[in-house]
Design a protein that fits this description.
Layout (H helix, E strand, L loop, with lengths): L8 H12 L2 H5 L1 H7 L6 H26 L3 H12 L4 H32 L8 H9 L15 H19 L1 H28 L5 H9 L9 H14 L6 H6 L8 H34 L11 H12 L5 H35 L3 H16 L7 H44 L7 H28 L6 H25 L13
Length: 501
């Protein structure tokens, strides 16, 4: 039986967009923009999108499409051309996806809980105290002292897992494509409706001014450019096996350039819409409380589960807008979670030739068991620590090695020649310039900066032993397992034809 294929180009793009658009677009991008020069941040962000986002997406789409393989298969074939073993990088990316998928589902679970709470706003007046003390019940726990299993968190996580499992179990056409054809238009409609209800509230304009008012002096700050490139890599789902897997199911005659550019533009456009929504709400909240907007701005889980619930009580028709906001979070989270788990499942299917249903059951079943660690008293602390090391160290390392390996040793010109044969419009030599020089240089700078800061300052107030074991230790084990799998694998004998699609 031949490899599965997407039913339509629209189905593939919506699935790729669904992977790229996640919770980070809603709670991370607005804060990053505000913190790094407001409107001026869009200049480095646009430059990062053009010089890193689109080239990376074209690169991963082209290799997944050409080789019809998930990430380990792609790097196995590349290693054959280089007369060395680099399949380990593909398995490392799969493991990054697996780890993210296991803790990411916890945040979807919180969103499902808050969807229920939002109908009656049962979080009370002190949303911070409610979230951390009553809902998460953190107490005196730590990443290494997790405490008890909390069923009110575990059950919503199981609901999220069941939806993801159904999508990946039924396959590309039957589950993932159909799910994203429903979820992505629904997500856009919900966000636009929320904006229509919040953008004209008293104080909303002040919030938007804080978001978009440019501080051009920040353009000379290297930290801002680092933040722009970091946000692009974090938000596009590149570097951890997803886009290789999704593009491997494309029909033979697919317009790679168009698909990549549309995916990146929709993702970045949605980030801006999310910024308008969030800062409209924060501006209104600041006006209602008669305090500066800087006092109500936060990032991460604090924004989604502390600030926004508090703001919902000040909104008109809160019993409609509140549930709609958290349903939006759930949809964004599920679309990403489905793609993350598909990256893992497709890699195992390609390597073992086991039936999809068997692999999906095994992977999701194991994922459910491990993810219960994040449904404990110390679950959010474990999530925070693991997420930091995976996103700021492991993922950047993966992207850096990938782009150097492909652009320098396989040659970016090979990529450009291949995609131009298939696409309606051709890509110029800027693709090679970006992949060979700009992206590796920026990734190297960001990676070294993150490693240096983590080694010298640590992360937050977590104990050093916890950072060594759950951070550096976890990454080291992932790399070691990847290398062992590579050297225990039987090498394929196929090679890449540089010219023939």
């Amino acid at each position: 039986m031949g490899r599965e294929q997407w039913n339509s180009r629209t189905g593939f793009i919506l699935a790729a967009v669904g992977s790229a658009i996640g919770l980070g677009n809603i709670w991370r991008f607005p804060y990053i923009t505000y913190e790094n020069g407001g409107g001026a941040f869009f200049i480095p962000y646009l430059f990062a999108m053009l010089s890193a986002g689109i080239p990376f997406m074209i690169m991963e789409f082209s290799l997944g499409h050409k080789l019809r393989q998930a990430a380990p298969g792609v790097f196995e074939y590349l290693g054959i051309n280089l007369n060395t073993r680099v399949q380990w990088l593909g398995w490392f990316q799969v493991m990054i996806a697996a780890v993210i998928g296991i803790y990411y589902v916890a945040i979807i679970g919180w969103s499902i809980s808050y969807l229920g709470l939002s109908f009656t706003q049962n979080w009370g007046n002190d949303t911070n105290q409610f979230f951390f003390t009553q809902y998460l019940q953190v107490g005196e726990h730590s990443p290494s002292q997790l405490g008890e299993l909390l069923l009110h968190i575990a059950i919503p996580m199981l609901i999220a897992w069941s939806i993801t499992f159904f999508a990946v179990y039924t396959g590309i056409k039957g589950g993932i494509e159909k799910a994203n054809k429903l979820l992505m238009p629904l997500l856009l409609i919900m966000v636009l409706f929320l904006i229509s209800q919040t953008a004209f509230l008293p104080g909303a304009q002040d919030g938007l001014n804080y978001l978009f008012e440019p501080d051009f002096s920040q353009l000379f700050n290297a930290k801002v450019w680092s933040a722009a490139y970091g946000q692009i890599f974090f938000t596009l789902s590149v570097g951890f096996a997803i886009m290789f897997a999704y593009s491997s199911y494309l029909p033979k005659k697919s317009d790679i350039n168009n698909n990549a550019i549309i995916t990146v533009l929709i993702n970045c456009g949605f980030s801006i819409l999310a910024g308008i929504l969030i800062f409209s709400v924060l501006g209104h909240m600041a006006t209602q409380q008669a305090q500066p907007i800087t006092n109500v701005i936060s990032s991460g889980v604090g924004l989604a589960f502390v600030t926004i619930p508090e703001a919902i009580t000040h909104l008109p028709i809160p019993y409609i807008l509140g549930p709609l906001f958290f349903f939006t979070l759930i949809v964004a989270g599920l679309s990403s979670h489905i793609s993350i788990m598909e990256a893992v499942i497709s890699a195992i299917i390609d390597k073992t030739a086991y039936p999809r249903k068997k692999v999906a059951t095994l992977v999701c079943g194991l994922g459910v068991v491990i993810s219960l660690l994040f449904a404990t008293n110390g679950g959010i602390l474990l999530l925070d620590l693991v997420d930091y090391f995976i996103n700021n160290i492991a993922l950047l390392f993966s992207c850096l090695i990938e782009v150097i390996l492909i652009a320098w040793f396989i040659k970016a010109s090979t990529i450009r020649h291949y995609v131009n044969q298939l696409s309606d419009f051709t890509i110029g030599k800027w693709l090679e310039l970006c992949l060979r020089y700009i992206s590796p240089a920026l990734l190297l700078i960001i990676f070294i900066r993150n490693v240096f800061n983590t080694l010298t300052k640590g992360y937050e107030e977590y104990a050093l032993i916890e950072q060594i074991i759950l951070g550096w230790g976890l990454i080291s084990i992932m790399i070691l397992i990847s290398i062992v799998i590579d050297f225990c694998s039987k090498q394929s004998t196929s090679t890449i034809d540089e010219n023939k699609p």
